[in-house]
Amino acid sequence: MTGELDRKAMATLSGGHLSVDMASGAVPALLPFLADEFDLSYAATGALMLAVLLSSSLLQPLFGLWSDRRGATWLLPGGVALAGLGTGLAAVAPSYAFVVALLFAAGIGVAAYHPEGAKFAAYASGRKRASGMSYFNVGGNVGFALGPLLITPLAIWFGLVGGLIAMAPVILYAFVLQRALPGLRRTVPPSAARRAASGVDDRRAMFLLAVVIVLRAVVWFALLTFIPLWILANGGTKADGGRELALMLVAGAAGTLVMGPVADRVGLRRTLLVTQVALPFLVVVAVVAAGGVVATVALMLVGLCVVSTFPVTMVLSQLYLPRHVGMASGLTIGLGMGLGGVAAVALGVVADAVDLQTALYAAAVAPAIGSVVCFFLPAPARRALPVEPAPAAIV
């Protein structure tokens, strides 16, 4: 690694991130259609989100550990292919049980891609890690936004088979990644540079950061799961719900390109703190306004505060655990995704027992607690680089 951004490698990795997250981003938009198809309760609907997120949460750190110890570039195309196939086939599954199983398989694909992709994105980023990781993450953010943008109209026009059609580009990109693997392997820095730049793992700092990530994920996945249903409950249509979801995701994707350079300039922890403080107020506004213009603006700002700080927390995790960067990336993404899915089911139970508005207000409490935890995050060692196994171990 020369210190300069490897744009070709980053474009390839960002494209893979776009593809795999387009598959996972399609799931929230499919939920209203699947709820109608199988006559699901709020809790059962939340369980579908949990299926894809739980497999990612449980397996992503394990894939990260595998990446740290042996290297596994085949996880990049394999993960994208499995995520696309699982989501597409879930849309046309004949029963609720099959939907759950296929979404669980899609989550395995998501889990496989992210740690290896984030590690190679760190190699390709050069000196400005937050900016480089923002370029990597913007692919995922755009993909997550494209999911509902493609799924909603296709499902309206063609029924649930439209979900399978929407996943065709995801599966095709897996072949692009397979052909690009030799070039990606060349971004691995020399072993001497890795040893000089690597630091000491700070597990206490990683624990605190994990708490912030989980609390942020609670409100995020509550909104992803229930905002389309909240719009429907307040007189909107499925198309309205899909549009609000897409705008929230698009705003986050656009903000990622800005937030990375901002974090490099003003500091990772300060950027994270400001966005966390804003979240509870924005969620309450979005719930109260319920589908109006004010709600749309509030949801877009929520997307900005949550999605654009994904690269910030990822870089922090890699700096806190420089000797286990694959594991750090897996924990950063996987832990938040899995526990966010658990929260979605729990909030679905609250919505069934009380009402959906109460459940959404309860979700807003989580980032308020996360704001307090942000104050205790220590300053990371900025010179740490990922550690890669010997080249012969990369397959």
Commentary on this structure:
The chain is mainly α and 395 residues long. It has a single domain (7-378), classed as MFS general substrate transporter like domains (Growth Hormone, Chain: A), CATH 1.20.1250. The protein is 82% helix and 0% strand. α2 (42-69) runs antiparallel to α14 (325-353). The protein is globular, with a radius of gyration of 19 Å. The two termini are 20 Å apart.
Fold topology:
Layout: H1 7-38, H2 42-69, H3 75-91, H4 96-125, H5 129-158, H6 161-166, H7 168-185, H8 191-197, H9 203-233, H10 238-266, H11 268-289, H12 293-307, H13 310-320, H14 325-353, H15 356-374
Helix pairs in contact: 1-2, 1-3, 1-4, 1-5, 1-7, 1-9, 2-4, 2-14, 3-4, 3-7, 4-5, 4-14, 5-10, 5-13, 9-10, 9-13, 9-14, 9-15, 10-11, 10-12, 11-12, 11-13, 11-15, 13-14, 14-15
Quick recap:
By secondary structure, this protein is mostly helical. It contains 15 helices and no strands.
CATH class: Mainly Alpha
Distance between the termini: 20 Å
* Outline: globular
Helicity, as a percent range:
over 70%
Largest sheet: none
Count of strand segments: 0
Total separate domains: 1
Strand content: under 5%
Keywords:
Growth Hormone, Chain: A, globular, 82% helix, single chain, mainly alpha, 395 residues
